Amino acid sequence: MSTMFSDKTYRISRENTQAMVIDVQERLTPHIENHEAVVNKIVTLIKGLQALDIPIMLNEQYKKGLGDTLPEVRELLQGDNAKSFEKVTFSACDTDTSWHYLAQQNRSTVLLCGVETHVCVLQTALDLLDNGMQPVIIGDAVGSRFPYDKKQALRRIRRAGGVVTTVETVLFELCRSSQDPAFKTISSLIK
Predict the structure, then answer these.
(1) CATH number assigned to the domain covering 14-190
(2) Is 68 known to be catalytic?
């Protein structure tokens, strides 16, 4: 039996990962199916990523129309914890300042959470793929108004080469070991 070698890695590593929170805003999020559960997962994800020291960027779609990011999310992303960008494009990659910040991190795996899955999350994921990056959609931390739209968006992202996972899975994968200093924090968040 021969062993194959490849430059492609399937593991999500802490050193090569950054995260993007997309459009979790006051006038949009309440219309998302099961929005309270989605927001709770986003909060858990952010807390876990902060324990792992993963860079997080916040994107907000047309704040004048959709309002600010929900307070429970915004309060976690103050100061040095995250960089915030307003956009009018659906893809966060279509906004120059957002794209430059993302590229400057030199981390090719980008975790995506937020709303709506079939619009801004999908278009951002496709642009990341087009630019040689690996989008990882956190399936239980994204949402759409209608379940079928979310389902089809996740299917399209997978077929294009994106990865779909869950909050718990990605946090433990980034942690890798119960010996990691972030393990206790992550374990308490997941309970």
Answers:
(1) 3.40.50.850
(2) no
